[in-house]
Design goal:
Blueprint lengths: L19 H13 L7 H5 L5 H8 L6 E2 L12 H6 L12 H5 L9 E6 L5 E4 H4 L5 E9 L4 E11 H8 L7 E6 L19 E5 H5 L4 E6 L2 E2 L9 E3 L12 E7 L6 H5 L23 E4 L9 E2 L7 H4 L13
Parallel strand pairs: 1-4, 2-11, 5-12
Antiparallel strand pairs: 2-3, 4-5, 5-8, 6-7, 6-11, 8-9, 8-10, 12-13
Bound molecules: ligand MTE.
The site of ligand MTE has 17 residues, from loops.
Length: 325
């Protein structure tokens, strides 16, 4: 987030042609997952250009319910949600992931569920789609860097996935581990962070109905740069909690060390609750800039728990949230 890395021209992905297997594999996955493919027109021309790939990536998700969560919020435009990203495996610049993750293949995909559970398992992304009915959740997202967005996610409560694994009494925390594949994620070769990207939640935070596993946004499959095929979304915490491209979910009795805690223990805590009263050591957290609102849009006041206090404040009763940042 606040690490500066020099970008070399030779690091860029030079492919301008989408190899047919990328296209075909993605199509197979969409068929298996029972999702409707809307991008046929762009690819029917036979031109496997970047534009075609971009079009292929925009696939409608069939069969999710609209929810009332956040329905009164003004959405951040799709363009901004998908081109202003933090995803260090694909670069540290905000625009990098949209380009560098273009050829990333989120299929086939298997998630390992392990640790303190009765039913440890390897579960395919196709089966994850069947765990619970998909819903739209419009959430305000607040980044620790001081900007925010309103995103219509498509996903399902993480609690439903957890219940399938039958956690034991030793499951006090859940650790989320992202893919770290040097071949498909160019920046994993660079030690900017301690790979793989790892995040964690306390069990009751993970089970809270607001916590979701997102598989899509704006009614479409999750774009690569936003964490395809599956990422965590915890709207009352700073955005870095939302591990992308998750391959492992591990239940433990000890608080996991997360990537950002290791990178800057004084700056990024385990809890990472949005708290306007606790400044980041290098900047204020009392206000935020809404992305997509234009250069001159005024900063808005940041709310405790990002405005979700009613649903989550009770999780932290008796805790000093200045210490447990
Ligand atoms: N997950 C992985 N694997 N790698 C990352 O670099 N960045 C985090 C989080 N998840 C990150 C990640 C940070 S700092 C933020 S703010 C959010 O993803 C950004 O999500 P978005 O790009 O979909 O808005």
């Amino acid at each position: 987030m606040a690490l500066i890395v020099t970008r070399r021209a030779s690091d860029s992905l030079s492919s301008e042609i989408t190899p047919p297997h990328v296209f075909h594999n993605r199509r197979d996955f969409i068929k298996t997952a029972g999702l409707s493919l809307l991008a046929g027109a762009a690819t029917a021309s036979g031109l496997f250009s970047i534009n075609a790939e971009a079009a292929v990536q925009r696939q409608k998700i069939a069969g999710f319910s609209k929810s009332s969560y956040g329905a009164d919020e003004k959405l951040t435009p799709y363009e901004d949600v998908t081109t202003y990203n933090n995803y260090y495996e694909f670069g540290t610049g905000k625009n990098d992931p949209a380009h560098e993750a273009l050829l990333f293949k989120p299929t086939p995909w298997t998630v390992s569920i392990e640790g303190a559970v009765k039913k440890a398992k390897q579960i395919s992304i196709e089966d994850i789609f069947k765990i619970a009915p998909l819903q739209e959740r419009i959430y305000r997202m607040r980044c620790v860097e001081g900007w925010s967005m309103v995103i219509p996610w498509v996903g399902f409560p993480l609690a439903d996935l957890i219940k399938c694994a039958e956690p034991t009494g030793n499951a006090k925390y859940v650790e989320f581990i992202s893919l770290a594949d040097e071949r498909s994620m160019p920046r994993v070769r660079v030690p900017i962070l301690d790979w793989p990207y790892t995040e964690g939640l306390r069990m009751d935070e993970a089970m809270n109905p607001l916590t979701i596993m997102a598989v899509g946004l704006y009614g479409e499959m999750l774009p690569n740069q936003n964490g395809a095929p599956m990422r965590l979304v915890v709207p009352w915490k700073y955005g870095f909690k939302g591990a992308k491209a998750i391959v492992k979910i591990r239940f433990t009795d000890k608080m996991p060390q997360t990537t950002w805690m290791k990178a800057g223990p004084n700056e990024y805590g385990f809890y990472a609750n949005v708290n306007p009263e606790v400044d980041h050591p290098r900047w204020t957290q009392s206000s935020e800039r809404r992305i997509g609102g234009g250069l001159f849009s005024p900063r808005i006041k940041t709310k405790m728990f990002n405005g979700y206090a009613e649903q989550v404040a009770q999780l932290y009763t008796g805790m000093d949230l200045r210490k447990n940042y």
